[in-house]
Design goal:
This protein has helices spanning 74-82, 105-114, 172-179, 191-196, 225-238, 256-268; strands at residues 3-7, 11-16, 23-30, 37-41, 45-48, 54-56, 62-65, 68-70, 88-93, 116-122, 124-128, 132-136, 139-145, 150-156, 163-169, 185-187, 209-212, 215-216, 244-245, 247-252, 272-276. The chain has 281 residues and is of the alpha+beta class. The longest helix is centred in the C-terminal third of the chain and has 14 residues, at 225-238.
Length: 281
């Protein structure tokens, strides 16, 4: 895709938030070229989907401006970026994006159903000029020049998840097949602590993979579903660059905090630039 895109029609979702458990509604509306991905919250305020508006990264990515916040934006942003949507208004009512089935599949399927409209302006891409390394203790993220958007993800959790490695190029077809269906996950022994911290209030076995001592409490969609969901999260967080990432990302045990820190630093540094790549480039 060399040109910018938007949705051919609006799509809407309604349910509960994974962490708040509160009713949540969102409508994603087509937008003109140059609009980018933007949030409108409770008809009160509007701001771009960019890393400067991230206000929390504990277990999910939270964006906001002033007193207005939206939690768990990463799955919907992941579906939009992974499906190749450059411009859309994300109209949110409630404190969180609906969890749906805990993956990005419902969002990606809805985008595929309505289809994309090609717009008469070149796609904006974020292109690194050099490799950058970001660390948070044992967590590592490397962002390097590339001709495509590619992610290499390594995770390492206690049994029964263990160590997993997955790599994929982020194209609409590969995203729908390899990334979007993979659900958020956690451990049974962590749930009580999460609930006490006000998290996972809307989590169920229908919208999350829960691992007990002997394995998952419901069937996995892929043997490497945890690592693939981590790619899903990373794609959503990298949508906060405000342009399509033309780079390779190597992630080792990374999470929302490291992703959003890296994106914020990349936007502020001279190690990359947002460029309108013409259709003939």
């Amino acid at each position: 895709m060399q040109y910018q895109t938007t949705l051919r029609d609006a799509i809407a979702f309604e349910g509960v938030g994974l962490h708040t458990g509160a009713p949540a509604r969102v409508r994603v509306v087509p937008a003109p070229p140059g609009h980018g991905l933007r949030f409108r919250v409770d008809d009160a305020i509007e701001f771009p989907a960019r890393a400067d508006y991230v206000v929390d990264t504990v277990r999910c990515t939270v964006v906001g401006l002033g007193e207005h916040r939206v939690s768990t934006v990463e799955h919907l942003l992941s579906a939009l970026l992974g499906s190749g949507v450059d411009n859309a208004l994300i109209d949110v009512h409630g404190p969180e994006i609906p969890v749906e089935d805990g993956s990005a599949k419902v969002f990606a399927d809805a985008i595929e159903r309505v289809g994309l409209a090609t717009l008469p302006e070149a796609r904006l891409r974020w292109i690194p000029t050099e490799a950058r390394v970001f660390r948070d203790n044992e967590k590592l993220l490397v962002v390097a020049p590339s001709s495509t958007f590619r992610v290499r993800m390594t995770i390492d959790y206690p049994a029964p998840v263990g160590a997993q490695y997955v790599e994929t190029e982020i194209t609409p077809a590969a995203y729908r097949a390899d990334v979007a269906p993979n659900r958020t996950f956690g451990f049974l022994h962590e749930l009580e602590a999460l609930v006490k911290r006000g998290l996972a209030q809307g989590g169920t076995l229908e919208n999350a993979v829960v691992f007990g001592p002997d394995g998952p409490l419901s069937p996995l969609r892929s043997p490497t579903e945890p690592a693939r969901h981590k790619i899903l999260d990373l794609v959503g967080d990298f949508a906060l660059l405000g342009a399509f990432p033309q780079c390779e990302v190597i992630a080792i045990k990374s999470g929302h905090k490291l992703h959003c820190t890296a994106v914020r630093e990349l936007l502020r540094s001279d190690g990359g630039e947002i460029t309108a790549v013409s259709a003939t480039s």
